[in-house]
Amino acid sequence: MSATATRPDESSANTLLKRFTAIPLKWRFVGFITLLAIAPFFTNNNYILRILGNVCMFSTLAVALNVVVGYAGLLDLGFVAFFGLGAYLYGLLSSPQLSALINACLGDRASAEFLFIVPGWFSLIVVALVSVGFGLSLGSPSLRLSGDYLAIVTLGFGLIFVQLSNTLDRVEFPGCQQPLNLTGGANGLLNIEPLRFFGFELQTVTHYFYALLIWMGIVLIAVHRLNQSRLGRAWRSMGEDALAAEIMGMPTRRLKLLAFATGSAISGVTGGIFAAWQGSAFPQNFSVDVLINMYAMMVLGGIGNLAGSVLGASVLSIIPELLRSPELIRMIFYVGLGAGLMLVKPRRNGLAVLIGVIVFGLIVKWIVGAAAPDLLSGPTLKVAAESISTAFERFSQQFGIFVQGWILLLKDSTLIGNLAFVVLVPALIALSRLKASRLKLIVTVPVLYLLAFVWESRLTAEPAVTRLLLVGSLLVVMMIFRPHGLLGQRKVEIA
Amino acid sequence: MALLEFTNVSKHFGGLQVIKDFSFEVQPGEIVSIIGPNGAGKTTVFNLITGIYAPDEGDIRLESKSIVGFEPHQICKLGIARTFQLLRLFLNMSVVENVMSAVYSRSHSNLAQIIFQTSGFKQEEDHIRRTAEAQLRFFGDALTSVFEQPVYSLPYADRRKVEIARAMATGPKILLLDEPAAGMNPNETLEITQLIGELRSRGGYTILLIEHDMQVVGGISDRVIALDYGEKIAEGRYQEVATNERVIEAYLGRKHNTT
Fold it and tell me: Where do the CATH 1.10.3470 domains begin and end in chain A?
């Protein structure tokens, strides 16, 4: 048995987590759903509602992925293709595309032009059935494979899907007079009908948010119930040891196919709702980075844990949006840096480094100002009273001015900023290899200053990149401290 | 009528003949042990019976019906359950779930019944849990306090018991135990020996045992079959087999003439 398995965790984050997990799952579920359900009463900001809709959508997808990967242990890297398949199929049926296809095929042989659109609810049913069919047919050649081999094959399927959605816009079909445009190619499928249930049309972001919320609720309940049944136990047994499961009477082939089919049906229908919401479907909506995002959500929350999947999906849907605001991103950076320094023991060392960095900055600024004053630019932030509305904005503004007081701001920082970045990475690695000593403390000061300089001169200028860098480093730090994910159970592989 | 018949079975892997024309039977209610040195092909016999491998020649019958060509889960459903020499428990699942998972082949709830939580499903789920707990209680109260704990937190000897309980939960006619005393100290070995005896006397199971430890074999077996290089070299009561010259030779090597 591995020694780490039973090691008690004593940090405060863990006690908080224990209190949280002590609440019965049912009440956590109800609480989460209610919290989301009342959100639209507090805001009519479409941007926020869109993020919440994404939370529901990705939670559903992460839960479906959990069935395949977390429970059944099938490393399926083609998962995103089913999401895309659902979206494209819905888009094909519930848009003018289908009648256009038939018209193009029949050409002048037809007596009249077709013009019909399949109602959305019916398309969703078709999507579910076809997704199950595709899940089974992609699952069956994968039955003989497991682990890495299965991952490679399914990744192939995923890539084929993106490729096909890009290229199936001019398909020569026997008996058709013109080449058919199935997927719209790189331009995507457009003019997709909104969903309509019993005469009620889902139009606004709020409507789709509720549709996705309800769908997520259904999926969560269904998957939770499956998990607590003979099927869930069999899936998890299979995920742990497929041969032992088979010998203990569980038909692993059928169970694998069932897991594939369940996962693809859920993600297919989610894709259909997504297409209706967006009103369009593009190949890049279903690319490998979306897949990686889904996996990150599942892994962050803890593989095999439903609440974890939802939490992971929420965190990874919300944080990148929070990081869009440059003021906030700066606050998070420096607060994170400061908090990291405060964790250093003994505490006075951390404080000394913090003060050291600021003093170091003031000296550097003074030297550069004396030697080459024309290189310096003035502070980019000024107290602009008229543009400030909230206390937070005022504070973040003040904070920015404070930071710029001791950080070198150059007129043209691109080249030197890039160079500094190149120096910074090996410097950070070297720093992490140094043993704790006075030398390390002294070296930390210029390295941290360099980090702050790179941050101010380059990273804030490229917010899109910085956002991903921050999310990435958050994940790295997270997985170092909790390798089994936020809510996951520590797994023991060999004991 | 024999419960399990193993008739003229041969199996080779590439050029290596692992089982050569091997035959034996197990009568209902018997405890039969297969002994032999490392690499004699003992575990291969189990793998052939449980359908992991198919025999090249010969036939394997359960209650006079051939089980050759069936998939492992079908063979399990027909009534053959086994344990593994190096335990293959579902380590991250709880003790009771491990055993409950093995009731799969005897339960029937489908997807819709599970999702809508029909009364039939709930009854069956209750039944599965009671079955699993009954199997675990067979081993006394030692395991009752750890029902909900993950298996990896259990000591080795308890894991053995959980694995046997899991095999029992499949509702077998015959239990195949692959070196149940492997890696155990003398006390634990004694306990497991008594336990195997109880599996027959209290549980009513027929048992086919692979064992290295002669103490275990001698204490409980009705019949012992010795295997060497895939061939049967002796069969009979423990005393006869243990004193058989070929068996001693297989275990200890040929006697040198010291002149």
Answer: 24-321
